[in-house]
């Protein structure tokens, strides 16, 4: 029920030598109620920009982000409280001079979601929800561990009674064992509260644990989309294949990272994307056409799509199959 308009394009870094960078270019994504959509890609692929636009923090230069049909931004300002965000670094997002209880209640009180006389109860509920002892609410952020601070950031988001949570690398700065705890918390909250979650991460293993569907981004575009198991088991885009081969298949709580085979080549500058397919300079199976024609994201079967000339359909493509991005 979260729809990004059909020609969503954000121009960032306004004018670099009179040219502007399209951090996100022509992306359409739909997220159904109660679903968790993972957005993966290397750093700089535009996934954070996309997340900020979905959250109503940043306006696209064209296109509209809608929640249940209503624009999430009106006149350049976020127009809804039902989309909340959780970012990578909870220390940066929590005011160090505020008691965490005040931080959590600030938004709900300002928006009339909690009456002043119900503060204590609302705070206890918010902290319990994320597995923290309500008696800690008078403490300051520095008195908590990284994992606890992320729980506080999640409690602050939940206190706004959101329907949609946009999470950008919410476990990236945590130790692996703590990552698993926070991921379990997301799984639990999704089930208990029926939350819709957009989970942005460079970590494919983390996304596999959480997401129902995944969108793979490269240079500001979605290059592949589909149900998480289908995409991970049988990727259709060479970039997705490369990403999956570049991480060892280890369990999340297994500790270290070994045997990484990175994708060859560098990510091109978004200022001068290559002609034809954006991925062609790095693609191991590129053909002549790839240097000339830019592949559109096209349906390859039920709920699957990829932007590659050589991607084969997974099943006969039916008339009603949705193209996930344009
Ligand atoms: Fe590779 Fe060509 Fe497919 Fe692009 S269109 S991913 S270059 S095969
Ligand atoms: Mg990012």
TrEMBL record:
Gene Ontology process terms (BP): peptide transport; transmembrane transport
Gene Ontology MF annotations: ATP binding; ATP hydrolysis activity
Domain ABC transporter residues, every copy: 2-244
Topology in the lipid bilayer: Peripheral membrane protein
The protein's name: ABC transporter ATP-binding protein
Record localization: Cell inner membrane
GO cellular component, one term: plasma membrane
Family according to the record: Belongs to the ABC transporter superfamily.
Alphabetical list of InterPro entries matching this protein: AAA+_ATPase, ABC_transp_ATP-bind, ABC_transporter-like_ATP-bd, ABC_transporter-like_CS, Oligopep_ABC_C, P-loop_NTPase
Keyword list, A-Z: ATP-binding, Nucleotide-binding, Transport
Source species: Acuticoccus sediminis
SMART domains: AAA
Gene3D superfamilies: P-loop containing nucleotide triphosphate hydrolases
